[in-house]
Design goal:
With 142 residues, the chain is mainly α. It contains four helices and no strands. It is elongated and about 50 Å long. The model has no long low-confidence stretch (mean pLDDT 96).
């Protein structure tokens, strides 16, 4: 697989993670614990594959600079900054949430999952937005 396709693969993985997170949330709200568990494991695996692919790509390509101008530039960097900061929090939060659930510490799991889920969801969605702005959308408006 050529390196040039990895940004698209990574965006798809982020999008799939977001969909899995929404489905998992809906399942736990409906008290379908086993379906929730399976979907959250799938989201974790998908996000892990994303992270490995992302690190591999950037280890070989380096940084990709945003070329947008005008109003898009501060929008892009605001999204990128919040995405990057929160992305660093997702692995430890997700691992802790999975650990607490797997050890049946459901009260503690619920407490941390209330932070983990929205952060993870935001990172997944903004990952797709960053990809679109960096590789697919026009670099200026007007």
């Amino acid at each position: 697989m050529p390196l040039s396709v990895l940004p698209t693969v990574n965006a798809v993985l982020n999008g799939v993670s977001a969909v899995l997170l929404v489905l998992a949330y809906r399942q736990i709200r409906a008290r379908r614990v086993m379906a929730h568990r399976a979907l959250m494991i799938a989201a974790f695996v998908t996000s892990t594959v994303f992270l490995v692919s992302y690190l591999y790509y950037h280890a070989h390509v380096g940084s990709v600079h945003y070329t947008g101008v005008g109003v898009l530039r501060p929008i892009y960097f605001t999204i990128l900054l919040t995405h990057t900061i929160l992305a660093a929090a997702v692995p430890p939060l997700a691992l802790r949430s999975l650990y607490l659930a797997s050890t049946r510490q459901f009260v503690r799991h619920r407490t941390i999952a209330r932070w983990t889920w929205p952060i993870w969801m935001y990172v997944s969605v903004t990952g797709v937005i960053v990809y679109l702005m960096l590789y697919r959308l026009p670099t200026s408006i007007g």
